[in-house]
Amino acid sequence: MATLSTNPVSARAHTNIALIKYWGKRDEELIIPYTSSLSLTLDHFYTDTTVQFKSNLSEDQILIDGQQPTEKSFQRVHQFLGLIRKQAGFEMPAVVQSVNHVPTAAGLASSASAFAALAAAGSKAAGLQLSPTALSRLARRGSGSACRSIFGGFAEWQRGEDDLSSYARPLFQEKLTDIRVIALTVARGPKSISSRQGMKLSVDTSPYYPAWVKTCQADLERLKVAIDQNDFSQFGRISELNAMRMHALTLSADPDFTYFNSQTLTIMNLVKQLRHNGVACYYTIDAGPNVKVLCQQSAVAKIAATFSKVLGEKNVIVTKPGPGVQYL
Ligand code: ADP
Ligand code: DP6
């Protein structure tokens, strides 16, 4: 049995933005994806989580942003803690306090930073000493994208074949370091269809899903070459293409759905216009209407000014590559 920490343990993990998207599970329980993915961890958005296991509790006590979570969110964290308890060989409940430092309801991958921070704080509080790979495998069980947030900078989630072989690893830490991601917030309400539901519907009903699996692998290989060669325009082009290929799976699902709203389309067109006028920038979009613009430091001022005029300054957030998970 692991030696449990008598003190609370706190960890911080940052969100990540996928440049080659994860969209579909081969194994829903273990969260093994159909395809490998590649992301960039961001400095601006993060989650701080504190965990302490206590024998005198009758059940887990969980607070997210100072509030009791919904039953669904509670169960998700509770089940995740169960994985830690199983590895540690005890059944003690835990006190969990977690704070998301991401713009309210901006849909910026809160589950990625949340489960990476929970994996780190929870495993250490339980007395487990996990390697970065083991931590990535554990975080994956909470939310697939969380396995990449264990690492800073670029991270590749190798899809693997089973629980043991599906985890992320850091790569290209010295490449494209002047990359910036400008997060543009266009909607504040909760998304109508979660990533989990959306990807399942795509896998189950889109006739294009097999083509996605094939092209995604090729996109990933091409993106890795672009990063290795510090080739920003290829990097942006491939990231944008891969994001659009993911969103084509939502439009071709039955019933069809989309994460875009009218402002998403307006921003996509503006990015294209900027590009046409010689500003190197590209977009990527996750499971929500907000757009992330990929650019280099030299283009930030121009792009931020353009979008501040359209969306207001507070909806334009410039982020840089961020660090991996850390103990506080
Ligand atoms: P997102 O795009 O923000 O990742 P998801 O639907 O994938 O959206 O994940 C949001 C879910 O992640 C929430 O409904 C909640 O269950 C969980 N979550 C978010 N923040 C936390 C947190 N700090 N601690 C634990 N679970 C969290
Ligand atoms: C569009 O990791 O949130 O952001 O594994 O079901 O928790 P679950 O899904 P999640 O999905 C992320 C989807 C995405 C693409 C990506 O981050 O790769």
UniProtKB/TrEMBL annotation:
The keyword Cell wall biogenesis/degradation does not apply. This is diphosphomevalonate decarboxylase. PANTHER family: DIPHOSPHOMEVALONATE DECARBOXYLASE. It is an enzyme of class 4 (lyase). Belongs to the diphosphomevalonate decarboxylase family. GO terms for cellular component: cytosol. Its EC number is 4.1.1.33. It comes from Lentilactobacillus farraginis DSM 18382 = JCM 14108. InterPro entries: GHMP_kinase_C_sf, Mev_decarb, Mev_diP_decarb, MVD-like_N, Mvd1_C, Ribosomal_Su5_D2-typ_SF, Ribsml_uS5_D2-typ_fold_subgr. Keywords: ATP-binding, Lipid biosynthesis, Lipid metabolism, Lyase, Nucleotide-binding. Residues 182-314 form the Mvd1 C-terminal domain. Residues 13-168 form the Diphosphomevalonate decarboxylase-like N-terminal domain. It holds the Pfam family MDD_C. Gene3D superfamilies: 3.30.230.10, GHMP kinase, C-terminal domain. The keyword Iron does not apply. GO terms for molecular function: ATP binding; diphosphomevalonate decarboxylase activity. One of its GO terms (biological process) is isopentenyl diphosphate biosynthetic process, mevalonate pathway.
